[in-house]
Design brief:
The chain has helices at residues 6-10, 46-52, 113-124; strands spanning 4-5, 20-27, 30-38, 58-60, 65-69, 72-81, 89-97, 100-108. The protein has 131 residues and is of the alpha+beta class.
Amino acid sequence: MSFFDVSAQQNPGSPSAYARGIIASYSANLFIQVMWQVAPGTTDPQFLFDLILDKSYDTRSGDMSTLQIQNMNVEYTAITTTASPLLPYGGAGAWTCGDRAFAWKAYTADTTSAQAMFNDALSRFVCNTNK
């Protein structure tokens, strides 16, 4: 699946950059969104986690888990959503890396795919604190 720059689509003069961005990808059976922003000194990504969840559509359906992935403290929870009747389940997670906070969300057709995709995405994530 290819990702597109949501920021650039909404405002061509202001594409995603190091300081802030949103990218997304979708198909008939999956939607993924990733966002980030500079947050110097922040060790708790909860604010970005709250931002990626759309209160109009998304509901946490499980307890928040704190995971240790690649020496990063990562928060994750399962979600349900009414954004798409074909993709009613999913998951959301957030983490910090250097001076930025990141959040990830996926809508899926089943209850188990999102966490596996999140774990796979984070296993590939490179936290390079050198700009």
